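TL;DR need structure tokens for one chain.
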Amino acid sequence: MRRGVIVPRATITGMPVSMTSDQLAERTARARAAAVGAGRDLGLDVGAATVLHDVFSVVVHLAPSPVVVRVPTVLPPHADAWEQAEQQRVELDVVAWLAEQGVPVIPPSPLVAREPVRRDGFSMTFWEFVDVDHGAEPDYVRRCGLIAELHAALRDYPGELPFLSAADPRMVTDALAGLDGCPELITAVDLDRARREWDVLEPVVRSRAEFEAVFPDVELQAIHGDAPAVNVVSTPGGELFSDFELATLGPVEWDLASFGPDGEAVYDAAARRLGLRGLDERVLRFVNAVGMVRAVSCLALAPRLPMLVDAVRPAVEHWRSTPFAGGLDELPTGSPRG
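>> reply
TL;DR here they are.
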């Protein structure tokens, strides 16, 4: 989970007091002002700009222009300006390519250059405005079938992508170290388990060679990287994939993490129709285990985004009932870890 103004390193190592509602509102206002200023500089009519969404990013419709700006505001401490811009360029390139192939995505705005724009400490991207059908009820299980269609298209993506950058292992490592002495965020028992699980999982997350040694028959390809069944926008004209901020090279299972057996079955049925491989059960256990530790680690960002405490709680409660490291605490490439 990345996303904004670069968060000071003390956000994790020092664990400041949570931001107040006034401070959060001021951050939103600064992000909106930066988006409006950047849009105006690019020659857009921004007279009725409106904030559409505000969690990890502030999303601004530069009305009356048909342009939406995504302004990340919560990032892990290590994400410097260069790293953020590079990641945003990857996203713009992947989505532009998918749009050219006729894949249903929200494309980059054709009214501005396809580049991230930096202003007032924020790095932002510009997207085509679409009408959202707010009455549509999301069916995440059904959408797992759409993920197979997306993967079929992404198999041919010609650009180079980093291996499992969506996992952001440095963020997880730093966050778990920084959660010491934060009982209001996580118990000592839970933190100890998360760290021991991460000792098992981290080498496989960080290294493509290690991953391929553990899962030798699992093909890697371009994937969405951030729960694509959730990042679907319903419009009067159909459903569109969005938010490819974490696009990466990885196993297709990564995009199915946490959707459960029903979603996995729907994906497998669609994959068979499209001539794709089915999901690998061991890889699913691996990506689900990584996802659970990442959820725990996100608590380190709670001072910058207080809603995370309640948002992560159900995942942590579920994680306590799951096998240690997804049952992968003994890896075939070496001695047991953990």
